Every structure is written in structure tokens, then in C-alpha cells.
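Usage

Read records sequentially. Each one opens with the input sequence:
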Amino acid sequence: MATEYYLGKGKLQVADRDANGAPGALTDVGEVPLISIEVTKDYAENFATSGEENVQDAHVPTKRTVKASITLKEATAKNLELILHGKKTANAGGSVTNQAFPSGILAGETHRLPGFAGVASSVVITDSAGSPATLVEGTNYTVDADYGDVKFILVTGFTQPFKAAFTNAASTRVAILSKRASNKFLRFKGINIGNNSGKKKMLAELYDCSLMPAKKVDLKGDEHATYELEIVLLADSTKAESEELGRYGNVLLLD
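and closes with the structure output:
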């Protein structure tokens, strides 16, 4: 009889669930180095005490829990929505005018470019005099247009607050913990390469997954960041009890 070891590779897809529990459009989340499922059952036990020694005569399942964890590596906007429990917003960009800096700016201070929402271009800074004076870039200030901050160099002789006009390029924003993440349908398109007989295809589907935000989000480091998400699998209320399909998910062996 051939051995059936398991060494899994493959792709993970995520979809929103509709009101009937069916998955919508499937999104490939990219490189996923780890996917695991942990199944736990709790039992009630009884020991009969009528004899010389207590004898266990019952071991009855009372609670079942299914958890999973996935590790993502690609920081796409769609993945960041899962990682941060945030909302993705596409900013079209465009011109902004009369964006006021705080009053009382001193020479040498660096301030965020007010209204910044994308790589800035055509930055013009004026003061608040009746006939506004225009500050000279390189003399009165320098600007980091990519990240949207301004360092003021010479500010005497001007009426504050300073005001900025510029154009934002298009960008994408993902807020942090700005919304409750809806439960997801997870689909793993896997291959088992653990046997000498060659790879075999398998498909795992997890029906009703409550994803928690990433435990840790690295913004700087010497290695590629990874994002570990813990998942609680819920019994899918849209599915009847079935030994064939189950209410949590199933694994389909395709070869």
C-alpha cells in the first residue's frame, strides 16, 4: 500500500458571503506560507464509584471548537483590509487650495502638508496678508512632495497662518480598525507533494470564517513582513447537519 504523507502547497482565495452563505467573487490573496486548522473537542467525564476503584464509564463530547490561522505576505490594499480590519478608499486626486497650516510656525519646524492625500505637485505656499505674499521654495521652505511635509526655513516678515495650494496624485488609503470585518468564505486550492508518487490535488473550503486583525504589523525591518491572522470557524447556520459536507467546511481529495 502506497504511503500518503502530506506536504501542502497551493493558493488561498477569500470571498464575502451572501445572505444564503454562498461565496461571492473570489480574491487570490497571494503568497501564503502557512495555513493551519485546529480542531478541539471538550468532553464530560464520569467515574463510577461503586467499586474498590473509581472506574471511568463515560466520555461524552460536549463542545467543539474549530480555529484556523493564516499567514499573509503580500501587503496589497485588499489584503490590508483583512489585516487591519479597515476600509480601502481610492482617492482620485486633484487640486486643493487654501489649506491652512497651524499658526505660530517657527523657522526650522517641519509640518504636514495640510490636505495631503497623494504625491503632491505644483506646491505653492502663501501667507494670510490682505494681499498674500508667496513664499519662495528653497529660501523660505523645502517640501517633500512624495510624503507631504514642509520644512520652514525663513518665516519672518509674513502673516500667519500660511496656506498651501497643490495637486494630489491618485492614491489608495486603508484605515486601521475602522470597521467590523464581515465573515469570509475561505477556499484553499492545494496540492500534496509529500509522496514519491507525485503531487495530488485537493480542495479545502471553510464556510463561515471570523477573521481577527493581524497580531503584529511590521512597518520596518530587515526581512519581508508577514501578517498572522487568527480565525474562528463558525458552524454555518445556512447549512443543515450533514456527515458528507459538514457545517464548518470540508476537504475534497481530487486525485
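Summary fields computed downstream for this record:
- The first strand starts at residue 8 and ends at 16.
- The longest helix spans residues 77-84.
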